[in-house]
Amino acid sequence: MIRKLVASILLIITLVIPSGCWDMREINEIGLVMAVGIDKSPRDPNLFLVTVQVANPQGSGSSGGEKQKNESQVWIANAEGKTIFDAIREIARFSSQRIMWAHNNIIVVGESLARDDITPVIDFFTHNHELRMKTWMAVTPLSAGDVVSSNVGMGNAPGRSITEVFRFQNLTGLGLPSDLLNVYHDFTSENNNLLISSLTLNEALTQAGLADISENIVEQIEVSGLAVFDKNRMLGYLTADEARGLSWFLGESPNLVISLPHPQNQNKSVAVEMNAVKAKIDSRLNQGAPEFTIEISGSGHISEEDTFSSLTINEFKSTLENLAEQQIAAEIRSSVSKVQKEYRSDVLRFGKTVHVQHKKEWNRDLKYRWAEIFPESEVEVVVKVSIESSTLNQVPLRNYKELANTNDQSQDK
Fold it and tell me: Which residues are bridge partners to 290 per DSSP?
């Protein structure tokens, strides 16, 4: 009897209380931020200029699947404020949709703001409960608003296209992954300084083959290296080539292609794709001064050869292994030297290595003098490469006919 009474009461409560989400919003009532740019206001350096790229669900195209000319895939807006949050609320004043940050792909910071103090950007976006910590972060020598406003990429949403550029940068090694989580971790660490990928706009040719080429030149986003910081202020940039030198030991399993001079013809090249690259940084104390060894090991295969070689396969591989080891070591030394001697900022995580491997000495003395010690530390680079490709059994197509003619002439004689 009691069970039936309880069941009846629960049934009545269920029928009386309305179902559904009381604060539910339709998709056309929400503006999904795809990218955001933060600059110092050109009008007043004490103000922040925030530019947002918001997905436009109304601009997805006509019923036939073609994009209407008068409809844009995104809505661009910007506003100024004394704080970043203040500027964002200013955007809300003239937005017809509630701005939502959960799907933001990237935060772009203008150089003028990065050189002054990047703290407000990291502080605001790491405290934003809507934002994912895996959101990408980048610095640009241009206006961040210009980068965010550019209609770039192969997809419908430019902000999403910028994210894809970051996803595939490990193929070139011209930048390093700099998501909000890693940036926050390095920013709050007493040992690490920030390295944030740099973005710029470059001209690219699209729709090749059309008569009027000038109309098909568009701006495209490209990863252009790394921005180097000392604590909260940006010091300068590493070029794309210099960033590649750091990717060998700071990147996550870099899969890079290196072009080597042909062992028998310096005017020709051999392309070697590296894989299974592993890096290790060791430290030792020499009369109290830390010294470092960067060890790189990996295998590779030959993906392209410009000309025929008379060397045996083993001889050819051995020569290429030596050349690859020399080139990788030279790239690393050049990049490390610039960071140490020019910027004098430990973005290489050497301090972290000493802290872990020599904790007692680090806590007693080294951490207090690290700014003076780091630029003078000796760095040794050891590289071991193994070429495992067996494709050298094939003659390059450009030499195949020439070799065949030579063999025919030999048989005729």
Answer: 285
Query: Residue 372's Cα: distance from chain center in Å?
Result: 30
Count of Cβ atoms closer than 10 Å to residue 208 Cβ: 7
Residue whose entry in the numeric block shows the structure tokens 């790189």: 296
Q: Tell me the C-alpha distance between 174 and 194, whole Å.
A: 16
Cα separation values, 373 from 111, 194, 367, Å? 28, 19, 9
Q: Are 178 and 167 in contact (CB under 8 A)?
A: no
Beta strands in 85-216 (DSSP E): 98-100, 106-110, 136-140, 195-205
Please enumerate, as own/partner, the contacts of 318-321 that have beta carbons within 8 Å and a separation of 24 or more. Answer: 319/263, 320/260, 320/263, 320/270, 320/272, 320/387, 321/385, 321/386, 321/387
Estimate the crossing angle of helix 119-127 against helix 84-93, to 10 degrees: 60
Instruction: Return per-residue pLDDT of the chain as tens, 413 residues.
Output: 666 665 666 666 555 555 555 444 555 567 789 899 999 999 999 999 999 998 876 554 433 334 444 346 788 999 999 999 999 989 888 777 778 888 898 999 999 999 999 999 999 999 888 888 889 999 999 999 998 888 665 555 566 767 777 766 666 777 787 899 999 999 998 888 999 999 888 765 444 444 454 555 566 778 889 999 999 999 999 998 899 999 999 987 667 889 999 888 888 889 998 888 999 999 999 999 999 999 999 998 888 887 777 778 888 889 999 999 999 999 999 999 999 999 999 999 999 999 999 999 999 999 999 999 999 999 999 999 999 865 554 555 555 555 555 555 555 55
The beta strands (E) that lie in 142-231 are given as: 195-205, 217-230
Contact call for residues 243 and 226 (beta carbons, < 8 A)? yes
State the Rg of the chain over Cα.
28
Number of H helices, E strands in the chain: 13, 13
* Region for 323 from its dihedrals, namely left if φ exceeds 0, alpha if ψ lies in -120 to 50, beta otherwise: alpha
